[in-house]
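new request in #modeling-help
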Amino acid sequence: MARRFEGGRLVVASHNAGKVREINELLAPFGVEAVSAGALGLPEPEETEDTFVGNAVLKAKAAATAANLPALSDDSGLAVVALKGAPGIYSARWAGPGKDFKVAMERVHREMAAGGNSDRRAHFVCALCLAWPDGHTEVFEGKVNGELVWPPRGSRGFGYDPMFVPGGYDVTFGEMEPEKKHAMSHRARAFAQLVEACFER
Ligand SMILES: O=P(O)(O)OP(=O)(O)OP(=O)(O)OC[C@H]1O[C@@H](n2cnc3c(O)ncnc32)[C@H](O)[C@@H]1O
Ligand SMILES: [Mg+2]
């Protein structure tokens, strides 16, 4: 049995504004008092693990310990089939110190073109970790398959959204209404499991 979140304040252990916005939207129906790591002045830990789950656990534990509150982290990224799963856990790092996702998307496009492989398939992965100050953790993973397009389209969402068309759709995550993304994204799928295990009565 998973440990349940018993209410009160919850730290959203992310320094990515786009993610924090999405997590707050996903948490909204549950009456959780969410406070972001940035608002608490928590440091951004170095992501030293080599898996999404490993980095999610590292970030949630660091925030839960520092804030002495339960903390929810998200480690996510884009895995491109023709690039053997890259950028993967390095998705944020491909944007460089300026966190410029135009740069990151251009690198994906350039490396795909250079590889000469016409396979456009990719998927987003999201690992969520809920950690408590005593070190207990619960972890959930979600995935969404899709295809990459060039040039990027749309200004909604964040990160690689403008170049990702989820399977069964013809718009990118950058063009899609947020409510639609929340019904089927990697983050929404991990979230549904989190809610079932730790939030719903
Ligand atoms: O670690 P935190 O502080 O949460 O923020 P971050 O941006 O560094 O987050 P990650 O380490 O998990 O890196 C994941 C990157 O993958 C990208 N990404 C994740 N989910 C995405 C989504 O739903 N749409 C577009 N890009 C996404 C996004 O650009 C992120 O910067
Ligand atoms: Mg990060």
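bot summary: The two ends are 13 Å apart (CA to CA).
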